[in-house]
Amino acid sequence: MATQTTENLNENVTNTEESSQEKKKPLFQNIDADEAAAEATEIESACMSCFRTGVTRLLLTKIPFFKEVVLMSFKCEFCGFENNEIQSASEIQKKGVHIELEVKTTADLNRKVVRSDYTLVKIPEVELEIPSQSQKGEITTVEGIIDRTIRGLSQDQDKRRIEHPEAAASIDAYIERLQDLKALKAPFNLILEDISGNSFVENPTAPAHDPNCKTTQFMRSKEQDQQLGLYDANAVDETVGDKKVLKEDKHLLKPIPEGEWTLEDLHGEVLQFQTLCPECRSPCETNMKLTKIPHFKEVVIMATVCEVCGNKTNEVKSGGGIEAKGTKFEVRIESKEDLTRDVLKSETCNLVIPELECEVGPSALGGRFTTVEGILVAMKNQIEGNDIMFQDSSDEAFKHRFKDFIQKFDKILALETLATLVLDDPAGNSYVQSLSDTDEPDGKLKVHKYERSYEQNEELGLNDIKTENYEE
Q: For the Zinc finger ZPR1-type domain, which residue ranges apply (predicted)?
């Protein structure tokens, strides 16, 4: 009888654990018409019209191919006042993004544009500048940005023509210049500078390289970090009387006493820290380990598994500093042996397959330690998973071009087509295994060291580094 009771108790505990695991859902769920609507959170809040108590509903969801958002809906049962808002909940990227698009054709006007609240918009030809945080983030087109500007300038023009005729005439003349941009009487440049890194301009020739659009990343300044609400934990001041002093026990990084934690201990230890799942934003843990790649350098391997959505990610970061020169690898893919080469791609490495006119930026795949075949499969999977982001799925010409591109990619993986994989890392922290008995490159591997350009140093944040008298 006691044994049976114990078995029943264990079965109940197991069922409870299974049911609790089934209840776990991602924090931000996709909008899906086939599934039941996600539950909204209801909270009491004051009505801004009659100041009585109303109800605000919050829904955390994801816009497909865009980012996480918080939908807010308020309704007052007393006066009938309603208000609906949307706020961004996407992660702030490590670097800001600077996008320059040369608009030449009608197709360029129809390019989709994703811009966040922190995006600065410029059109130098008409001296147009839309400051950061002056408008809410949106998904629009190049023409849509111009149309919204025209609508904003056209407001109250009738009243302005009566009260301030000179100002109204100047605005009408400027609106004509904007209309000329829409008519493409001359090419113009659209510049987006987003310190949050969450802006994007569609590439109509994807997955091929976009010749009319240049995208670069930049390191944010201290003032820009503070504008985003990012502060250094080591720089938190505490006021004592009339003076501000740095509180030492609040330092994020603290020195370790000499001999307490050796390098050998660090190599053999798997460290864990709390983070958020990059897919569903639920809390999870990341495992981190320091290891050494033979004939190269020390790297940090990080792996994350989310128990809520099942997403698994792994990433590799360089354990050393930036090298004195950039490194460019060219790997000829002709046999199965070539596909098995070990490859370390850092998060600053750019990938190119010239035969396909395919280029993948450094931030697309992150840092990873894999093989040539693993890199190619990862490139293919990412392009396949984001095809709707490139173009409207109803575009038959694009679908045919995209299908043809994937077939060529499959032929390279099946070794039916010869191809070259180029890894260009300005930081010099990437590595490709040589198949020769020595450390020298074999016949199918070319390694080229080069001096970085000013733009590459700027993107890596090296131009602002002070190596002498840095304590001043």
A: 45-203, 275-434
Residue range 9-24, pLDDT digits in tens: 445 444 544 444 445 6
Give tens-digit pLDDT for 179-198.
999 999 999 999 999 998 88
Per-residue DSSP letters for 45-101?
EE-TTT-SEEEEEEEEEE-TTS-EEEEEEEE-TTT--EEEEEEE-PPPPSSEEEEEE
- Evaluate if residue 455 carries a pLDDT over 90: no
Tell me, what DSSP letter sits at residue 137? Answer: -
**What is the Cα 233 distance to its own chain's centre?**
23
Distance, CA of 90 to CA of 349 (rounded, Å): 24
pTM above 0.90, yes or no: no
427 touches 318 (CB < 8 A):
yes
If DSSP codes are grouped into helix, strand and coil, which group holds residue 181?
A: helix
Lowest mean pLDDT among 173-187, 207-221, 253-267: 253-267
**DSSP H or E run through 17:** helix 2-23
| 155 Cβ contact list (under 8 Å, min separation 6) | none
Alpha-carbon distance 203 to 201, whole Å? Answer: 7
Domains defined for the chain, CATH in brackets: 29-88 (2.20.25.420), 96-228 (2.60.120.1040), 267-321 (2.20.25.420), 325-388+395-464 (2.60.120.1040)
Going by their DSSP bridges, the two strands 128-130 and 119-123 should be labelled as antiparallel
- Amino acid identity of residue 370, one-letter, is T
Q: Which of 283, 285, 323, 318 minimizes the C-alpha distance to 300? A: 318
